[in-house]
């Protein structure tokens, strides 16, 4: 996979040289290219922003350097190798594990982390006519720039690529992963020693009984999700829950409505 990042702070992307992503780059499994947007400015101050039309606080990133930068980055793209342009913005679609899985299947991603009040809209509209453009948010909050979201998204995407994780099965039961856990949060995990500061390991994990261990992990995932992200339980497809899941949720104080979905007791209003 090829990843290009255009930014005014290339040094912010240094973490891409360490850990799993850094190792994948060193092996050649991941081709990451970081570009300094200021290289496409033509004044002595390397200006990349200007005041917004219509007034208001803050500055807006100018279209000219972005256009020149993206044209050059995309210059070697053939008709059959068009990248996905990923625009980090608080007003974008939420970045999810499902989106990470989808993007991990793309051969080429180009990220455009902005600063100030964002990029002149004409840039997004211009490239949206020829590329698959994704405006993506990593959460309902505002950061000083888009570089941190790029680091988040690249790590979430890269770890799904073949060969990046030491154990190819490691991401199968991640929180939010589609499949076995049906979008639930992952439960608690333990390792050696069996006792630490007077705290032991749940006996079921020492039993060697794979069926009971799987059930315990599922129950723990349900309990953690109900506590930390009740919206995921409320939005869960009832067909993804077996009778043991339903019993576990009822024990946690959830009740099944006439629509089949589960709700915290006393909160569901029938339609």
UniProtKB/TrEMBL annotation:
Its EC number is 2.1.1.228. The keyword Ion transport does not apply. One of its GO terms (biological process) is tRNA N1-guanine methylation. Keywords: Cytoplasm, Methyltransferase, S-adenosyl-L-methionine, Transferase, tRNA processing. It is found in: Cytoplasm. S-adenosyl-L-methionine binds at residues 138-143. It is an enzyme of class 2 (transferase). InterPro entries: Alpha/beta_knot_MTases, tRNA_m1G_MeTrfase_C_sf, tRNA_m1G_MeTrfase_TrmD, tRNA_m1G_MTases_N, tRNA_MeTrfase_TRMD/TRM10. It catalyses: guanosine(37) in tRNA + S-adenosyl-L-methionine = N(1)-methylguanosine(37) in tRNA + S-adenosyl-L-homocysteine + H(+). Residues 1-233 form the tRNA methyltransferase TRMD/TRM10-type domain. It comes from the Bacteria. GO terms for molecular function: tRNA (guanine(37)-N1)-methyltransferase activity. One of its GO terms (cellular component) is cytosol. Belongs to the RNA methyltransferase TrmD family. PANTHER family: TRNA (GUANINE-N(1)-)-METHYLTRANSFERASE. Specifically methylates guanosine-37 in various tRNAs. Homodimer. This is tRNA (guanine-N(1)-)-methyltransferase. The lineage of its organism: Bacteria, Bacillati, Actinomycetota, Actinomycetes, Kitasatosporales.
């Amino acid at each position: 996979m090829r990843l290009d990042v255009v930014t005014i702070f290339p040094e912010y992307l240094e973490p891409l040289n360490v850990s799993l992503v850094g190792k994948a780059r060193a092996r050649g499994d991941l081709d990451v290219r970081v570009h300094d947007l200021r290289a496409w400015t033509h004044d002595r101050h390397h200006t990349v922003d200007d005041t917004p039309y219509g007034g208001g606080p803050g500055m807006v990133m100018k279209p000219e350097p972005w256009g020149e930068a993206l044209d050059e980055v995309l210059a070697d793209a053939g008709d059959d190798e068009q990248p996905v342009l990923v625009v980090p913005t608080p007003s974008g679609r939420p970045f999810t594990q499902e989106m990470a899985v989808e993007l991990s299947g793309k051969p080429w991603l180009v990220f455009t982390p902005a600063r100030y009040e964002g990029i002149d809209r004409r840039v997004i509209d211009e490239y949206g006519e020829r590329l698959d453009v994704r405006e993506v948010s990593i959460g309902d909050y505002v950061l000083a720039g888009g570089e941190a979201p790029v680091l988040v998204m690249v790590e979430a995407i890269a770890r799904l690529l073949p060969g990046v994780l030491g154990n190819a099965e490691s991401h199968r039961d991640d929180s939010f992963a589609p499949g076995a856990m049906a979008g639930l949060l992952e439960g608690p995990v333990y390792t050696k020693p069996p006792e630490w500061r007077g705290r032991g390991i749940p006996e079921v994990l020492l039993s060697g009984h794979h069926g009971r261990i799987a059930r315990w992990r599922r129950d723990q995932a349900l309990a953690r999700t109900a506590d930390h992200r009740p919206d995921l339980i409320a939005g869960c497809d009832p067909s993804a829950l077996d009778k043991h899941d339903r019993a576990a949720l009822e024990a946690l104080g959830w009740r099944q409505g006439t629509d089949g979905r589960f709700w915290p007791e006393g909160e569901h209003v029938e339609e």
